TrEMBL record, chain A:
Keywords: FAD, Flavoprotein, Oxidoreductase. The keyword Oxidoreductase applies. Pfam families: FAD-oxidase_C, FAD_binding_4. InterPro entries: FAD-bd_oxidored_4_C (IPR004113), FAD-bd_PCMH (IPR016166), FAD-bd_PCMH-like_sf (IPR036318), FAD-bd_PCMH_sub2 (IPR016169), FAD-linked_Oxase-like_C (IPR016164), FAD-linked_OxidoTrans_Type4 (IPR051914), Oxid_FAD_bind_N (IPR006094), Vanillyl_alc_oxidase_C-sub2 (IPR016171). Residues 40-218 form the FAD-binding PCMH-type domain. PANTHER family: GLYCOLATE OXIDASE SUBUNIT GLCD (PTHR42934:SF1). The keyword Flavoprotein applies. GO terms for molecular function: FAD binding; oxidoreductase activity. Its cofactor is FAD. This is FAD-binding protein.
TrEMBL record, chain B:
GO terms for molecular function: 4 iron, 4 sulfur cluster binding; glycolate dehydrogenase activity; metal ion binding. It comes from Thermalbibacter longus. InterPro entries: 4Fe4S_Fe-S-bd, 4Fe4S_Fe_S_CS, Cys_rich_dom, Glc_ox_4Fe-4S, Helical_ferredxn. This is Glycolate oxidase iron-sulfur subunit. Its EC number is 1.1.99.14. Binds 2 [4Fe-4S] clusters. It holds the Pfam family CCG. Component of a complex that catalyzes the oxidation of glycolate to glyoxylate. Residues 17-47, 68-99 form the 4Fe-4S ferredoxin-type domain. It is an enzyme of class 1 (oxidoreductase). Its cofactor is [4Fe-4S] cluster.
From TrEMBL, chain C:
One of its GO terms (molecular function) is oxidoreductase activity. It comes from Thermalbibacter longus. InterPro entries: FAD-bd_oxidored_4_C, FAD-bd_PCMH, FAD-bd_PCMH-like_sf, FAD-bd_PCMH_sub2, FAD-linked_Oxase-like_C, Oxid_FAD_bind_N, Vanillyl_alc_oxidase_C-sub2. Its cofactor is FAD. It comes from the Bacteria. This is FAD-binding oxidoreductase.
Length: 486, 448, 433
């Protein structure tokens, strides 16, 4: 690559304020929120901070011309290393494209640039009676573009669905430099659902430059309950009981003892520190119905051995309870210098045995594991705590987390519920997918990005080459030509 | 892909006041702090974010970046030390601590120009080192402001020549009276609820004497004896933030000596920056045999006036004050001391007063100690943003609780030709009391 | 060997894998296949596909045949693969609210099984006993209940599909929240079987509401009716479906009411449903001529009929067009549609899915030319328009998927990758893929 020439051309596109090529400054783009022990450091060759979709398009065209890899990045809160420029090249940071372009109150949607911060969109639409339902715990910092790329979830996704359910359309710059709109405010755009395919593709199929999101009406009433239990087991039972009762809470979150302690130290959210586990349950909807369901939920929790059930009375109390939950991962820094977060989903009914297994593995590997998770959809997040300077710990962590993943897969679960595969989990993909499965996905990738310049080395296992896909294609082409000749 | 398995040898940092590596690596780079960081919000560059700055420190500690890399110094000075990042950090990274240590490192290891040395000497040793000298200098300044000399200097362009134009604009109006820690004692009115010492400080004592007076009135009205104990000095914050912790320690010892009396219930501070500093003496003096323990006892008693009143509750009912105000959070109150609810609770306790929240109320106004002198560009960008947000509320007054912020806001308003006043929260309370019937039976009010 | 011979040989071999007798029953827009085969296992399907692929047989995967009105005229039609023998409910976990079902299972069969455990998929079609799950997903049809529960697309958590090469691939899994790998479910949803043959689908299912009521309100004027419907949509009330029908449409679903009719469905626990229906009635009453509340079976029946008037089944001498438009603009669209038939002898009925933002217009006429012209005019309205069903004569020289979307090049590339020999539904999908 002719670096000099590339730099100059980029400079012309984004201006001196939009390009970073000083290797020292590039140091601060070699990480995201994933643990560096496992993700490593990956310094891009050049970072650009475009302000418009036109600039993004020019950048991508240029990358094509020079044949250099492109990696999109939002706020860098991703936990799977998906925003790391593993093969160097151009890192496209989207945070400066942060305008809310349109809010359509009547029809309940908004058009935003991808750098808009998740929470800020909800704050902006709240006075108009709307919110953006996907609420990852990182919502104070992460971008809508990142949410789209990772199909992020959050506590309220239990009732409202994940990001994918809230994206109506996308403007995207494809790897070949073409810029298109997919979807739109009315459903069922004809043809292949490219919007649906792009959501969750972790920035490997294009750069999103505008997002049309569905806004959700604020519920008439909200009620947050905190139920304390002696252990995870009884809290899990309460979870099942609530779901089985036909009540669909807006959120149903669980935290174990270790997490409660860390969170209390950080924010004094008022969680009972002696509890073995707590459930945070939010109910919303029409006032009378919420009140009724709340009574029923209290009953169910008591029936499963809740030692205490509290109701947040004021918005402030509610906020505090949520703040504790939403800061839980970050608060792990108070317990140990490093943590490895395993994000997996198991069928809801498999939660109790899975929790038991996690506990056993924690003992077996002599590693502290904190648990905080979206119990309602069986999406668990064991946080394995460690210190990378303690000899041998890293290996134990690796073995422990692999065992956890393997167990989850064995009981019908999956690798990642919401954080994505990225760099970190790509080598686990073969635990759940066969070569045929992966080849079909590789086919999808190639259809968008035949030169494989977009966010390379993500999602697919290292060294994965889908010779098969190529073989099929070549065979098929020959055949067709043959037929034409006859 | 496994990085550095063995404990990194600390490369770049050396000497005294080394940023603690365990604090640096308690950052899990989650990015939660980015949106609250004023410099990041303005530049959008990761290097100007808390996470980026911590990573730079880490890179130095791990030997991947040179301590004297201009990038590092630039970031360490561009940071406002507003500590908004600390307040939202779920991991509890003690950012202020490692920032100040990093600055101390730069002062230690970086060759300084003669001008810088002179500035430091004049500022930190001569002026702030002794309160008598500080007041004398202030009297001169007052003369400068009132005598027509200033007008002359402004017209003549000499200020621009001296590179002092900006400093002049920001210069506080010096009051005609100073509050001096001279041993005065003001007894409680009504039922006595305790005894407190007022921390006088530097700028508050000269430019904001009226705020001190208001503080004394409000405290006595609420049943507290107030003592102005002699021997106290500057809090030392400017020294510590400026990379000169040693001078800061000198000030700290002196204040502990003066105010460490067992006979007072609390040391009351009405400048958020000073309060935050006084509360951090235990860290500053952690390696000082004689003072470490005393610093802990001392700091445990330090309270911001707002914090104190909210904690103990108002025993006297304020009178009505029919006005609309907006509240600007001083960083060192909101972030360093995490005092955010109490000011609002006190304002809400005043009948007929309406509080309208401004957007980004917790974003730094760009004052940050002497920052506006060092990084005028960033400071004025932030000031503009702040004033826009404040004025958008349509409030009749901006309420704050720190002299630095108040100066900055006043200067900005003046430059825009805006007339709305900037008031200290205690002043507002004082006015409300002035509007209350004097002999009203005391009823305990729960605030906060 | 000649082309013909290769073809015949492939057909002969495929026939041994489960040939069926009545090719005439598998007509697509006037074409009938040379062979119909009904594999009874995924393995058999794989083999059939790879044989068909090698020989380049124009292949149409066949479900219940109830939505065959959708699609462009096929370029050719050699082989129909009837999937109804692949109809197992592979795994049902009521406590996890998940089910895995083979593509050939009918909506009715699956519904019965789920219903026994108080669960459901929120789609209603009168042809439930014939409509297969695979067919529904391939055509991407979802009813007005998508407003309350999401479209089927939103409930899909896993998929298994066979590629023309014979390769069997999966995406997703059996958990309700999953971001491992690309979303292959959405790739195939609504792709009309043009990228692969759907073998199995995994869904998250929904607890069947314990009660339901439908508020029906009639208005003389469209604007009043629309205003009422939009007002509910804009409120914090939470009906699961909101539709607006013109008189003819209303008649079609068994509502004998004049003017414009708004129907709003409430589902949930009995008391909640009652309150919700009461509050909705209050909102819609002021300008209404008549307000009625249907309960239980009566309500359910209405919505099944509604499902019938939005499907893509063959209609004889009529066409049905689906037009997307934002909910607040739908009333205006309804009027535009009316105007569009000026000068044509067509009978028009309109159903507006106010909850979701779709309009279904059904137009009947004696002459193909009238229908053709009607479609031509309608195809330019709204944000997008699809000719859901039409007599073959009307489909000549048009793309039933309407205007070409910006992503057509990517769609072409996808087709090229997955079905390079173009054996799956050749010519029938968008852009004649
Ligand atoms: C403490 C903490 C808690 C978290 N909690 C949750 C949670 O509850 N739920 C959850 O789902 N996630 C959670 N996350 C993970 C993370 O915040 C989300 O994945 C988030 O969506 C990432 O957004 P980002 O803007 O930081 O994206 P980045 O991390 O910068 O990037 C993530 C991916 O998006 C791609 N990308 C970014 N912008 C674009 C664009 N415009 N176009 C195309 N691709 C783009 C990148 O290439 C990368 O693949 C958490 C993270 C942290 C640190
Ligand atoms: S919030 Fe704390 S842990 Fe997270 S990046 Fe900022 S300083 Fe680091
Ligand atoms: S102290 Fe303020 S300016 Fe400095 S990094 Fe933290 S938030 Fe940013």
């Amino acid at each position: 690559m002719d670096r000099q020439a590339l730099q100059e051309r980029l400079l012309r596109i984004v201006g001196p304020d939009g390009i970073i090529d000083d290797p020292d400054e590039l140091l601060v783009y070699e990480y995201d929120a994933s643990d560096e022990v496992f993700a490593g450091h990956h310094r891009p060759d050049i970072t650009v901070l475009p302000r418009t979709a036109d600039q993004v398009q020019e950048i991508v065209k240029l990358a094509n011309e020079f044949g250099v890899p492109v990696t999109p990045r939002g706020a860098g809160t991703g936990l799977a290393g998906a925003a790391l420029a593993v093969r160097g090249g151009i890192l496209v940071v989207m945070t400066r494209m942060n305008r809310v372009l349109e809010i359509n109150e009547r029809d309940g949607y908004a058009i935003v640039e991808p750098g808009v911060i998740n929470l800020e969109l909800s704050q902006l639409t709240q006075p108009r009676g709307y919110f953006f339902a996907p609420d990852p715990s990182s919502q104070r910092a992460c971008t809508i573009g990142g949410n789209v790329a990772n199909n992020s979830g959050g506590p309220h996704c239990l009732k409202y669905g994940v990001t994918s359910n809230h994206i109506l359309g996308l403007e995207v710059v494809l790897p070949n430099g073409e810029r298109i709109w997919t979807g739109g405010p009315a459903p069922e755009s004809p043809g292949i659902d490219l919007t649906g395919v792009l959501v969750g593709s972790e920035g490997t199929l294009g750069i999103v430059t505008k997002v049309m999101v569905r806004l959700t009406r604020l519920p008439e009433a909200v009620n947050v309950l905190l139920a304390a239990f002696a252990d995870l087991e009884s809290a899990s039972q309460a979870t099942s009981a609530i779901i089985a009762s036909g009540i669909l809470p807006a959120a149903l979150e669980m935290m174990d003892h270790l997490t409660i302690k860390a969170v209390e130290a950080a924010f004094h959210a008022g969680y009972p520190e002696d509890a073995g586990a707590v459930l945070l349950i939010e109910l919303d909807g029409l006032a009378e119905i919420v009140a009724e369901s709340a009574d029923r939920v209290v009953e169910l929790c008591r029936g499963c051995g809740a030692t205490e059930v509290r109701v947040a009375r004021t918005p402030r109390e509610r906020e505090l309870l949520w703040l504790g939950r939403k800061s839980a991962f970050g608060a792990m820094g108070r317990l140990a210098p490093n943590y490895y977060l395993v994000d997996t989903t198991v069928p809801r009914t498999k939660l109790p045995p899975t929790m038991r297994t996690v506990e056993e593995l924690s003992r077996e590997y002599r590693l502290r594991i904190a648990n905080v998770f979206h119990a309602g959809d069986g999406n668990l997040h064991p946080l394995v705590l460690f210190d990378r300077f303690v000899p041998g710990e890293i290996e134990r962590v690796l073995r422990c987390t692999t065992d956890i993943l393997q167990y989850c897969v064995d009981v019908g679960g999956t690798l990642s519920g919401e954080h994505g595969i990225g760099l970190e989990k790509r080598d686990y993909m073969t635990l759940i997918f066969t070569t045929e499965d992966l080849c079909a996905m590789a086919g999808l990738k190639r259809s968008f990005d035949p030169r494989e310049l977009f966010n390379p080395d993500k999602v697919f296992p290292s060294g994965f080459s889908c010779g098969e896909v190529n073989a099929i294609r070549q065979q098929a082409m020959a055949k067709r030509l043959g037929i034409e000749f006859v | 892909m496994v990085v550095a398995e063995e404990r990194a040898v600390l490369h770049g940092f050396k000497g005294h006041d080394v940023p603690e590596f365990d604090v640096i690596r308690s950052c899990v780079h989650c990015g939660f702090c980015l949106p609250v960081c004023p410099t990041y919000r303005v530049t959008g560059r990761e290097r100007s974010s808390p996470r980026g700055r911590i990573w730079l420190m880490k890179s130095i500690a791990e030997g991947r970046l040179d301590l004297l890399d201009p990038l590092f110094e630039d970031e360490m000075t561009l940071c406002l030390n507003c500590r908004a990042c600390e307040a939202v950090c779920p991991s509890g990274v003690r950012y202020g601590e490692i920032l100040e240590a990093s600055r101390a490192q730069l002062v230690q290891h970086r060759p300084q120009t003669a001008k810088e040395r002179l500035f430091r000497f004049l500022g930190f040793q001569v002026l702030l080192g002794d309160m008598r000298r500080f007041r004398a200098a202030n009297r001169l300044l007052r003369l400068y402001q009132r005598s027509g000399l200033r007008a002359l200097a402004r017209r003549s362009g000499i200020l621009r020549l001296l590179g002092m134009e900006h400093a002049d604009r920001l210069m506080p109006e010096i009051s005609d009276r100073f509050v001096v820690a001279d041993g005065s004692f003001y007894p409680a009115l009504g039922e006595r609820r305790g005894r407190v010492a007022l921390f006088v400080g530097c700028v508050m004592g000269t430019s904001y004497a009226h705020v001190h007076e208001a503080t004394v009135r409000v405290l006595t009205r609420n049943g507290f004896d107030v003592a102005l104990i002699p021997g106290q000095g500057c809090c030392g914050a400017l020294h510590v933030h400026g990379g000169d912790p040693e001078s800061g320690r000198r000030q700290a010892r002196r204040n502990i000596d003066a105010l460490g009396s067992p006979y007072i219930d609390a040391v009351i501070v009405n400048a958020a920056g000073c309060g935050a500093m006084l509360k951090e003496y235990p860290h500053l003096l952690r390696d000082d045999h004689d003072y470490a323990e005393r610093a802990r006892a001392f700091s445990a008693k330090v309270r911001d006036a707002i914090e104190f009143l909210a904690e103990r509750g108002l025993s006297a009912q304020p009178g009505p004050l029919p006005m609309t105000v907006t509240y600007q959070e001083p960083c060192h109150l909101a972030h360093a001391q995490r005092i955010t609810r109490q000011p609002r609770a006190l304002l809400e306790a005043i009948p007929e007063l309406k509080l309208v929240e401004m957007a980004e109320s917790a974003l730094c106004c760009g004052s940050a100690g002497i920052y506006n002198l060092l990084r005028p560009e960033m400071a004025s960008t932030l000031l503009d943003r702040k004033l826009n947000n404040a004025l958008a509320t349509g409030a009749e007054a901006i309420v704050s609780a720190n002299p630095g912020c108040m100066l900055q806001l006043q200067a900005g308003l003046r430059a825009r030709g805006e007339r709305i006043p900037v008031l200290h929260l205690i002043e507002v309370l004082d006015r409300a009391y002035a509007a209350a019937p004097a002999t009203r039976p005391a009823e305990a009010l729960a605030a906060g | 060997m000649s082309d013909r011979a290769v073809l015949q040989q492939a057909l002969d071999r495929i026939a041994t894998l489960g040939a069926r007798q009545e090719p005439a029953a598998y007509e697509v827009d006037g074409l009938t296949p040379q062979l119909v085969v009904a594999p009874d296992s995924p393995a058999a399907l794989q083999e059939i596909l790879s044989l068909a692929n090698e020989a380049g047989l124009a292949t149409v995967p066949w479900g219940g045949g109830t939505q065959m009105g959708l699609g462009n005229l096929p370029r050719a039609f050699d082989l129909a693969i009837d999937l109804r023998k692949l109809n197992a409910i592979v795994q049902y976990e009521p406590d996890d609210l998940t089910v895995a079902v083979q593509a050939g299972c009918t909506l009715g069969e699956l519904g019965a099984k789920l219903g026994a455990h108080g669960q459901m998929l929120p789609v209603d079609f009168p042809t439930a006993d014939r409509t297969t799950i695979g067919g529904l997903v391939a055509t991407g049809l979802s009813g007005p209940r998508r407003y309350g529960y999401g479209a089927l697309r939103d409930l899909l958590i896993g998929i298994t599909f066979a590629l023309p090469s014979g390769q069997l691939s999966r995406g997703g899994g059996m958990v309700v929240k999953n971001v491992s790998g690309y979303d292959m479910m959405r790739l195939h949803y609504g792709a009309l079987g043009s990228l692969g043959v759907i073998v199995q689908l995994n869904f998250k299912v929904i607890p069947k509401p314990r009660a339901e009521r439908t508020v029906v309100a009639a208005y003389r004027r469209l604007s009043d009716a629309a205003e009422a419907a939009l007002q509910v949509r804009f409120s914090q009330l939470a009906p699961t479906a909101i539709v607006l029908l013109d008189a003819l449409s209303a008649q079609g679903v068994g509502l004998e009411m004049p003017g414009w009719v708004v129907s709003l469905r409430c589902e949930g626990p009995a008391t909640a449903v009652q309150r919700q229906a009461d509050r909705i009635s209050e909102v819609v009453r002021p300008a209404a001529d008549r307000v009625e509340v249907l309960e239980g079976h009566e309500s359910e029946r209405l919505w099944t009929e509604v499902g019938g008037s939005i499907g893509a089944g063959r209609l004889g001498r009529a066409i049905r067009v689906r037009i997307g438009q934002t909910p607040s603009e739908l009333p205006r669209l309804a009027e535009e549609i009316d105007r569009a038939r000026t000068g044509l002898v067509v009978e028009l009925s309109r159903l507006l899915d106010i909850g979701s933002g779709l309009c279904y217009a059904t137009l009947a006429a004696e002459r193909d030319e009238d229908l053709q012209l009607a479609w031509q005019r309608l195809s330019g309205l709204g944000l997008h328009a699809t000719l859901l069903t039409a007599p073959p004569g009307v489909k000549v020289d048009t793309d039933v998927f309407g205007r070409q979307p910006a992503g057509l090049a990517v769609m072409r590339a996808l087709k090229e990758t997955f079905d390079p020999n173009r054996i799956l539904n050749p010519g029938r999908f968008i852009g004649r893929l």
